Amino acid sequence: xxxxxxxxxxxxxxxxxxxxxxxxxxxxxxxxxxxxxxxxxxxxxxxxxxxxxxxxxxxxxxxxxxxxxxxxxxxxxxxxxxxxxxxxxxxxxxxxxxxxxxxxxxxxxxxxxxxxxxxxxxxxxxxxxxxxxxxxxxxxxxxxxxxxxxxxxxxxxxxxxxxxxxxxxxxxxxxxxxxxxxxxxxxxxxxxxxxxxxxxxxxxxxxxxxxxxxxxxxxxxxxxxxxxxxxxxxxxxxxxxxxxxxxxxxxxxxxxxxxxxxxxxxxxxxxxxxxxxxxxxxxxxxxxxxxxxxxxxx
Length: 298
What we know:
Helix content: over 70%
Oligomer: single chain
CATH class: Mainly Alpha
């Protein structure tokens, strides 16, 4: 009896000790994460405060509170082209969406179908082709700017949206890699059962693979959209007409041509330009995080 009592006492003390350690580790984790979160969010808070302060002062408590910066970016024409009839930020946002949305959707489809081929279709040389595709990720994208510009110049496509839409519409090696990881997690039994029913690869892809891999597809689509949304060098290289400038170029011109103080109008434009990506992430963050973890990022 005494031995049993000692065992229960030791087990109880061990349980209490483990419980205290777990509680302590959680408290430390929450404190560290809160501190890191404050560090990350601090610049955004200061940007919003400064955008509401006349003169765009970063010093809290100094300057007059005003929405004039937000008013000007939607009512003033801050452009070097006097024929522009709409606010420059609105024009830049419209052009950015016209470029980014089609290229993102087409690129996601191409990457997903390629990933399906690498994951579920057995063909000779599959691993070699996949390895060669991964090697292309080592090549800097800026290396293609000059030859691409020469080609589009000969095709008379400079100063149009085509040079910015077409490359992204063919997908990316990084997207193929992550989607392949997600597709490989789908049991082959589903694919084999569909083949026995006489279903082809295209229908298998749409009816089985896409629904089961929706989080991975959404996460890669978000990453592709954000990459195109924030692109600066491409539009700067190919677009010469101010009416075709994208959002990032518009922000730069607003910064240099702001007429409402030092930084207020530019900061207000920056806050507004961040809203689409923030809202998209807030609505899709569950799928984004799940898609990344299912694609092999732990």
